[in-house]
Amino acid sequence: MGHADALDRRRELDRLAQAVDSPAVQVAAEDQQALLKDLKGILEMALEENARLEASKKDLAAEVARLGAQEVSLREQLNRTSARSLRGPDRADPQGIQDAARAVLAGNPTLSQTLRFLSENFPQRMVALPSAYKSAEESSGFLDRRKAYQMLQTLVTTFYEEGLVGRGIAQDPQCVRWFGRDGYASHEKRNLTPDGRQLRTFPYDGQMVFMDAHLKIGASESPAECMRCHFHWDAERRLIVIGHLGKHIRF
């Protein structure tokens, strides 16, 4: 580098040094520092707000989960209350419930004991109307008690859990699987007379409900050899409502 170049370089450095030391540059630098400080403060506030919102979000999620669980609990309680309000004699007969449990364990419950035991143990799934208890008592001599119990138990357990109660197509392979080819009917195969239809209609929840779907054992007219269980699917409450359990109802 020549002497002239070195001198020019020195002059340039001096000029830059003077520019940096000038009041205008000092003010700009101070403004930048203040701006950086303000930005840092804004960033810290934003981070704090974000943390607060995240915590609030978690609290809201927990509250939504709590309210959801509470809703499920209240719905279950409502179903239990509704079912109990519609039940027959098991409400005020603890001894009858105990006797029914013993009979089930022994494998030989009467039809009315089957109703008591299942409605007591599955109140969220099944309700037996007083008309069902009345018909069951009238068929106290029915012989194939074990099979009747097994069919009704399947109705309120497996059949219910697999969502088959609501659609109830008799020819559905699942219906045949659980009840046999002749154990379940979604409707009567014969045309009903007005009396036949009325005999299959039962008071439930303030209205008269026609219950065509039924389980069946035997085809005899004898109450000892034939059983019919007519029921209704309450889709809103998700309840199986049994209106009749006993002898074959005439057409």
Report on this model:
With 251 residues, the protein is of the alpha+beta class. It has 9 helices and 7 strands. The protein has helices spanning 3-20, 23-86, 94-106, 111-121, 130-138, 145-156, 158-161, 173-179, 194-199; strands at 126-128, 184-185, 201-204, 207-210, 214-217, 227-234, 239-246. The protein has a 5-stranded mixed β-sheet. A hairpin with a 2-residue loop joins strand 3 (201-204) and strand 4 (207-210). Helix 3 (94-106) crosses helix 4 and helix 4 (111-121) packs parallel to helix 6 (145-156). It is rod-shaped and about 130 Å long. The N and C termini lie far apart (123 Å).
Cα radius of gyration in angstroms: 39 Å
Query: Which residue ranges are poorly predicted, with pLDDT under 50 across at least 5 consecutive positions?
Result: none
Class per helix and strand makeup: alpha+beta
**Main sheet makeup:** 5 strands, mixed
Give me the number of helical elements.
9
Q: Span between N and C termini?
A: 123 Å
Level of helix content?
Answer: 55-70%
The mean pLDDT is 81
Give me the count of strands: 7
Based on Cα principal axes, name the global outline. rod-shaped
Strand order of the largest sheet: 1-7-6-5-2
Strand content: 5-15%
Give the H and E element order: HHHHEHHHHEHEEEEE
